[in-house]
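User: Batch of two.

Assistant: Item 1 of 2:
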Amino acid sequence: MMLQMIESFRAKIVRGEVVTGPFMKSTDPAFVEIAGYAGFDFVILDREHGPGTISEMQNLLRAAQVAGVLPIIRVPDSREISIDKALDVGAMGIQVPSVESAAQAREIVRAAKYAPAGSRGVCRFVRASNYSSIERSAYFRQANRTLVIVQVEGLKGIENLRDILAVEGVDIVFIGPYDLSQSMGVAGQIDHPSVQEKMREVIAAAAQRKVVVGTFVDTVENALKWKKTGVQYLSYSVDAGIFYEACRSIVSAVGGR
């Protein structure tokens, strides 16, 4: 099932389709299931800014598989151990924050892949291999199909963008607009003209290299705008924010305190 979900997701991207999903900060598997039943393509289980432990991730990953939504873990950092643990518990992709150089991107790919593509630490007795019930060679092939997503979210990363885009094994380059705005001295102003210009530079460079690009949006208006510019991997808001907005709309419509 895991390989089928990964290949289906990859095929959708190859066809040029847009995939959409939220960041998930809740550690309740029900929210992941709901996101899947709602029709999202993926969920990003957030271990950088979210409270979830690696142990709690396992039940979130199970919920994603039940609901047929591709689970990606945003790891807290680019350390090999962080990547290895996320993949061992069954993430079908990793998303790594604050990537600033091609050397860093290569190390991320190396940590995420088994030989010959990398040198990921080997253990077959983990959830990702159905606790060793998957035939070993089949498991290693499946594991090397998991997605590698790198976040370029600062001026230093953008300065080295062309080299990062050339790294084999990077599937998606993700623009972090809020961190980018901070690195440009306009923290939180993601619609600032200079921030928007930098984002368009990244999208254009990725298109030239035929690398899929993604970004975070928290309004439908911005989602449609970046979709039109060629962004295929759209992270739409956060579970907490989506729930808050839904609650506020009800209060506004029918009244409340």
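Item 2 of 2:
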Amino acid sequence: MEALKLEDRYTYSDYCKWDDSERLELIDGVPYAMSPAPSWRHQDVSVGFIYQLRSFLAGKPCKVFAAPFDVRLNADAGDDTVVQPDIVVICDRSKITGTGCVGAPDMAIEILSPSTESRDTLVKFKLYMNAGVREYWIVDPDKKTVAAHVLDSGRFYVSHYSETDTAPVHVLEGCDINLSEVFMDV
């Protein structure tokens, strides 16, 4: 997806003034239009992850949220990046605001769509790594795979999982995601 053709760079303050009828992300001061409503596959996979994460987190301090949910990755610096991962897990409740998260969530999950694949796998990959997101999963609903990236010493290390695997969530000790349940109807 291409950046909107606008001349200036923007901040979170500008972002808050924009019309809510069009979903946008702001990356390094440049607004990007998000695709229209995700496909049913995308939604079904998202629900599968959220169900398992929410069940695991019941009674625990961490919370799971689904898009649209603003994540301000550099709120203390230029505050010019606001992304909306498909799913986030946040364990530091002081980061949770009325409409999103200030700072890096502990985990972000992006479910690929044809219109967002390059942004999710390239641009957001670097953003999340540089912001200190401790775990970043890239989910391909068509191939029924997960690339789970775990941050260690400023770098992401990846493990690959398929639809028959159980994938451990490293930022949530004891949490394993049964991918056959996530992908069962896709």
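The chain has one domain: 38-182.
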